Amino acid sequence: MTGVDEREVQHDIETPAPVQIRFGIDFVAASLADATVVMSMPMSGLRNPFTGAPAVGPLAILVDAAAGMVNHYRRQRDRWTVSSELSLEVSANVNDAMADGAPPVVASARAVGSVGATPLALCTLMCGETEIGIGTVRSAFIPADGVTAKQPPRTLLRGTPTLGERMAVQVDTGQHGAIVLRQHPDPDLNNDIGIVHGGMASAGLELAASAAMNADRSGDRFQTASLRVNFLRPFFAGGTSSYVATPVRVGRTTGVADAQAIGDDGRVALTARVTAYR
């Protein structure tokens, strides 16, 4: 380990408490000495706002929280970590996690290899006794100087919010029928340095990409099996921020789509490729 204080075990600027509360993430266990983290998150009832089908994308929130925390533990005291790449691979058993009444998904994350310039962490995803997938997060170090944790007032959601309400997103249509998911600003969805949480943004990319592959399809939908995300620059939410997706190929059994997260400054902040099967 690299001198991280025990008081920081449950604090990571990437996934602060408001994000964990919004998505029901529980901190199960952690070891600074071993650089391991265990977190859980319920997936039951989370549905794609475009299609109404169970959504795989929110698993990226859990992956980024757990594996990102492992990388955070491995930093030097004068550094912070930010996600630079995220991947999610799920098996057909992911349906077990999305079924009504399913237990929360548990992510067990550990470090991979030496720290280097870009630490890598891997997590296994379990629903009950069944392994449903794996995820990875590669992080980059940034200087801690000048980084001030922001803790704005909480945003309260009433009743049982939908996934779209939790993510503060709205279905829209772009030019020529393009799939667009508007990302409204919500301080509870930001990390401690004021940008949209990386796992949450990755989930938005998956929702848009899945919708692009399933456009005009009511039954026998494509289900996401693979999500690969690159973080290019900070993603700031505002009046014009959105996720846009276009299909690369939609075949009989396989679909591929690309998605982008476009910040309020008009710049592409994240890119993703999603592969799905039916």
Automatic annotation (TrEMBL):
Pfam families: 4HBT_3. Residues 191-275 form the Acyl-CoA thioesterase-like N-terminal HotDog domain. Signal peptide: none annotated. GO terms for molecular function: thiolester hydrolase activity. It comes from the Bacteria. This is Acyl-CoA thioesterase-like N-terminal HotDog domain-containing protein.
